[in-house]
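Quick note —
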Amino acid sequence: MEKERVFINLTRIVFAVIILRCFYLQVVRYPYYRNLSNRNCIRTVETGIPRGIIYDRNMRVLAKDAPSLHLVFVPHDLESPEKQAAILARIIPLSSSEIVRKFKARYSNPFDRVFLKRKLTQEEIALIEENALELPGVFIQEGLVREYALGKETCHLLGYIGEITEEQLRIYRERGYRMGDTIGQEGLEKSYDEVLRGCAGGIQVEVDALGKYNNEKILGKKESVPGNNLVLTIDRTIQDIAHEEMGGRRGCVMAMDPRNGQVLALLSNPGFDPDDIKSYLDKDGHPFLNRAIKGMYSPGSVFKIVTETAVLETGVIGDLDRVECTGEIEVADRIFHCWKEEGHGWVDINLALPYSCNVFFGTAGLKVGVSKMLEFASLYDLGRLTEIDLPGEKGGYLPGRHETDPLNLSIGQGPILITPLQVLSLISTVANGGNIWKPYTVKEILSADGRKIKEFTPTLRKPVYISSETIEVLQRGLRNVVLFGTGGQARVEGVEVAGKTGTVQRAHRDLELETHGFFVCYAPADSPKIAMVVFLDSGASPEAARIAGRILKRVLVTGEKSEGEEEFTEEETENVEIF
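Predicted structure written out below.
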């Protein structure tokens, strides 16, 4: 009896504990476990992560999201991947093998939807719906697509978005990114991805213990939260004009305010369609190369700005010292030619820059030496990153003092490499009297409802300590380049333009060599508001100067569109001169 009582009492205690525990879990902790249950059985099928709008400086839209329909599939629900892939390959621009590979890939949750093609056309939608019975597990889903107002015209500036790669996912997983998300892959979309990226919305569905859901059990919708907006320093009008004046030429145009470093336009040709990246992967001309910040080229005679700075600051040649140019000079066993075969005669530094006299600058280079020219190139920050807020910028290359000779270096040839942006920074520094501003493209960050979150202000990287007399001589010479020198094609009626030409390597039909053509400038010369570089992959500096002049005329004077373009003839291009 004693043992029975003990057993009964123990049983009562156990049941009491169980009842109390049940009361605690089902009554006291009810809200917690209810929430946990909901989180386990209610899933949000995302319809896209909204990104912020990108505006130009005048609040004109450059990039924004738009509603679209996408093709998705649920791996678990596919019945015959090969057969279904064959049907879809006739509808969407993917091969059957590509679709099968995507169908059979390993997924952490085989009940999650996987994107197969974004932005379906009306014809594709009709054909998919027509074949719906033969495509179990394949669905059309609402979503978002990124639209770029100027298309290829701003592709290198804005970049594009694409599905996150496995390598990127390893880096960004801790920041909330998941497989299937879109992420900025280039340009400002990449630099400011986390600023532009919002929070996903979608439809809420009930799932079973395995994570599978029924399309008919839609419980509601979760509203998405848009990302922040960017207001750029870019002027869409200048961007448009630069695009029109460059036409189909390979090269780039970049414009900047020399007073503060704000980038006004950035164009690189050829470009690519942000909506159709795949079709440009095998195209000639390096369409994904942003020539303005990633292309590295010999500066040619643009470097004479640096040479002139070096000789004036060291005093090896004075303002009025003259050199006779007979068309060539002999140094040891080498003949160094001027671009003008008959020579320029007696010239001083005030005429040497406008005429771009190779003999004068070669003589000056011999006197000042390689080390000093490289010292002043470094003073202007050539061969260094400008730290622009765009991804992938190249720093260029300044050779060591034993890697080049004074004759070649004095006219910007040999192993020296710089980017068009660095050339633009150089001319801007001279234009503003000696300040190197950090170039930047984003002016403000705004919330989705228009509140200002952050404003970017100009950043002075450093002052260039050269005398005001040297600056004055340089500025006078650059004005004369356009007034009566090699940059005459850039003259604009009503506006004084200052600039410098630079053509690298003489073109010759038999050798099939191409020239790179530079023209850098600023205007108005007495009170600069805009500095610009025009670079041509294949062309001469007069053609680059002509393009710059047309852009400046339309920006500063008329605001009207050009009426047709006057092309250089084949004969003119073959007989270009190096200046």
